[in-house]
Amino acid sequence: MIARSPPGRYPKIAAECHRDLAANPFPGVIEILFLGTGGARFVVARQIRASGGMWMRFGKTQIHVDPGPGALVRALSHVPPCNPRELEAIVLSHKHLDHSNDVNVMIEAMTSGGFNRRGAVLAPIDALEGEHVVLPYAQKFVERIEVLRESHGPYHIGDVELFTSIRHLHAVETYGMHFRYEGRTVSYLPCGKFFEGLIDDYRAHAPDVLIVNVLRFRDSMDVDHLTFDQARKVLQGVRPRVAVLQHFGTKMLEQDPPKLARGLEHELGIRVIAAHDGMLLDAGTELAALAG
Ligand SMILES: [Zn+2]
Ligand SMILES: [Zn+2]
């Protein structure tokens, strides 16, 4: 017998969870739920910060980006829970495990264990073939597999158009994402080494919201991740209306990301937010408030 939720509790969650767009006074809703904001092997291995990626809602279109370790558990235990069966697509920026570990279990959840063939997976080719992370059996469960290519698009996901960025300098094939919905653009700059071309590429898409992975604070080593100073350079060049920092390594966490964000906000004159686990960014409202 299937255990039922206690009376009174379930209807409330259901009402919150199943947003009825027709009844929604804000049809242009853009929400980004940060299921995990940790990056780097040490932070992820010890789960100092969670690593579940981002659950995005653009109106009725729901997209899960970079489902790292714990993504499914984080999605289901959030209040109200995220429902994988309502997902339109799962998108991977690259195949490193902190971005892709839960992709197969998330595909199973999205497709009701493979019994309901639906949804899409979008990922670079090396996540799908060769030493792939999306297992062949799980690839058969989804309706559509799309290979992400450099500076390409639009890829259509429900009501959203997705454009990929220039290729990032990272150990595996890695692309940033520009999500376009109802005249607004949310861009995601994942891991990679800094180069000037990043600024030009992201600026060309004129993002309203730019989410940046900032793993390191300062580093003299030649690493393939952005440091805080390089993230500042990117924000200075791109000038989104709202910037969100996330995917922190230990050195960044030691520096107190909210404090760094406040400093940047003051310095650059744009809204800067340091994400934390479980943070819901109501981008539509945030942008409307800035415009007002
Ligand atoms: Zn990473
Ligand atoms: Zn990586």
What does the model show?
The chain is 29% helix and 24% strand. It has a single domain (26-291), classed as 4-Layer Sandwich (Metallo-beta-lactamase, Chain A), CATH 3.60.15.10. With 292 residues, the protein is of the alpha/beta class. Helix 7 (196-204) packs parallel to helix 8 (228-238). It is built from 11 helices and 14 strands. The model is unreliable at 1-23 (pLDDT under 50). A 7-stranded mixed β-sheet has the order 6-5-4-3-2-1-14.
Task: Give a quick account of the main beta sheet: strands, pairing sense, barrel closure.
Answer: 7 strands, mixed
* Strand neighbour order, sheet with most strands: 6-5-4-3-2-1-14
Q: Could you estimate the helical fraction of the residues in percent?
A: 25-40%
Shape: globular
Strand segment count: 14
What is the gyration radius calculated from CA atoms? 18 Å
Ranges where pLDDT stays below 50 over 5 or more residues in a row are 1-23
CATH architecture designation: 4-Layer Sandwich
Which molecules are bound besides the chains?
zinc ion
What fraction of the residues are assigned to beta strands by DSSP?
15-25%
Superfamily at the CATH H level?
Answer: Ribonuclease Z/Hydroxyacylglutathione hydrolase-like
CATH class descriptor name: Alpha Beta
The residue-averaged pLDDT reads 91
Indicate the multimeric state.
single chain
